[in-house]
Amino acid sequence: MSRFASSTTSIHSSPPPQAARNAAIAAAVLALLAACGGSDYVDVSPVTTAPAAPADPGFVENVPLPVAPAFVDSAATNQQTQLTIDVNAGVRALSPFLELWQPLTRTVDVSTWSGLPGQGTVLNQAVHDRNIQYVVDATAQRTAAQATAAYLDDRQNQAYSIVDGLGPLTAAWRAGAKATTTITAVAADATTVKYDDGGNGAGDATTAAFGSVVGFINTMRNNGSTEPAKRFYKYPRPWRWSSAVKVVPALEPAKSPTPNTDGGFPSGHTNAGMLNSLAMAYAMPERFQEMLSRGLELGENRILAGMHSPLDVMGGRMLSHAIFTGNINDPANAALKQKAHADAHAWIQGQTGTTANTLYAYAHAAAAGADRFADHDANKANYLRRLSFGFSPIKATNGAAVVPKGAEAILETRLPYLDAMQRRAVLRSTALPSGYPLLDDAEGWGRLNLFAAADGYGAFSGNVVVTMDAARGGFYAMDAWRNDIAGSGKLTLKGSGRLALYGKNTFTGGTQIDGGTLESAADGALGSGDVYVGAAGTLASKGPGQLAIGGNYAQLDKGTLDITLGANNAGTLAVRNTATIVGGTLRLRFAGGFKPSVGASYRVLRAGTRKGVFGGVVADGYKATLEYSNTGVSVHIDG
């Protein structure tokens, strides 16, 4: 590579006008030809015409409503009255349980049910046996710390106990809510005395600054009873199925003496815990995944307590999603949910000294020792495990996912820059496979994976256009998608925000950056298609290795390639086919600890073929010069 084949600007100067730049390039080319006799010719002629952007698929993904009756249309029918499965939306949402267990009678009447095993028919013995054995094993292996956590999640009001899922925001939240509890530890006589929480649950709904938030949390539990389903399905608790189930000793006084009104399926504590978690996640989406993780942790604690089985907990989770969706879509709650979100942020930001753009970092600043939900990947694994508790599929696993009517509203504060149909597409693309016991309900509640949905799309189908607005702050300004994105669709980023892709993505439709910054935080983040950086767009490469571009790369004049260079070619681009550079800026940063050597050259772009040149280079803290070969671009560190 010849230094004459270069285009030079530095951090201390502005790029020359286009005409002057072209003349300088032409002169350099002539000098090179004269010196080398043409044998080492490097093409540094500018390109004025950009190649076409990746073709749009021609359609936007549409996620139809399920054929089944919608819970949100009849949420108010989930009441503690003598109703049948045909008219109670809550009972109906859990109807796949009838494939596993036949209750004594298909009504909510419990007058002829003893509440003990034997009154009802197990229809899938293998699933039932594993369901109870899971509790036997879990309670036999339970640690003292798990027993304490299970006790507190049982006896504290769930609206109080799950708040610690907010991590660094917990103290400020409880101060705003003025939430209290009378149970802070396991009393010495708890094995013989039943203690009930005399606190105020979610808090004081009359406070000016935070009352709307408390009121919102309480409102999201409307129509939230599990009693109709318990009395319809009549499935005993695990400790009634097997004497090998070891209930936490301190919870012995909490065991019901009336089994015919104490069904195990679904878990009421899980339902209540998840409803509170969903409400807090909606109001404070900076801890969305952590709050959902906390809700399912409470559900697993019901198993560790010996009070519920995995199927009980799975049913409680499904019902909570349906109930929350009914409430969050209720027009009567429209103003409340917006005010709760606004007031929660105003209070928390005031207490923590943060802004809309710094709150997320503050909310995730604690180490694992101070925040047990600090590890995203551990949360993800635990959440996925708790969705099915290791049951094997009992049906085909390739059934198409359906998305319940209105479920997209759960994500409207977490993914606010997407429209409702896009959120439905996210839910469908991140849903669990089909086939698991209980989870294949007709509306789709069982297969929802809200943790994965908060990490963005799982697959692109059609044209996915994302428009972000940095001026609005929060997730409008910056977000990260961590799923491995598949599919044949295309991603187009517009606006002024920053979207980071962390997945090992395989989508084939290409990437177009018309505005804002698309940050590639993984080597395969851009899939296998073409990448096109428009005049107002920035591609930021910050991965641990080379960013692989499976097709062609094109950058328009005034577009920006922003590389964070590290050791072993970290952050550099490897373009499989042609890199066409119509102009624009190459922005060079340096990863923590990496210091370039003055006088050295660093190859930042490799391609099958390179065409065109950048308008200039800006290198943090250094003067730099661009160097070109016919298959790449290097940066020479001048000083």
Automatic annotation (TrEMBL):
Supply the CDD domains for this chain. Answer: PAP2_acid_phosphatase (cd03397)
Per the record, the domain of life is: Bacteria
Q: Which GO terms describe its cellular component?
A: outer membrane-bounded periplasmic space
Signal peptide annotation: 1-19
Keyword presence, Hydrolase: no
Q: Which residues form the Phosphatidic acid phosphatase type 2/haloperoxidase domain?
A: 209-328
Molecular function in Gene Ontology = acid phosphatase activity
Alphabetized UniProt keyword annotations: Signal
Q: Name one Pfam family in it.
A: PAP2
Stretches that traverse the bilayer: none
Q: What is the protein named?
A: Phosphatase PAP2 family protein
Annotated source species: Massilia forsythiae
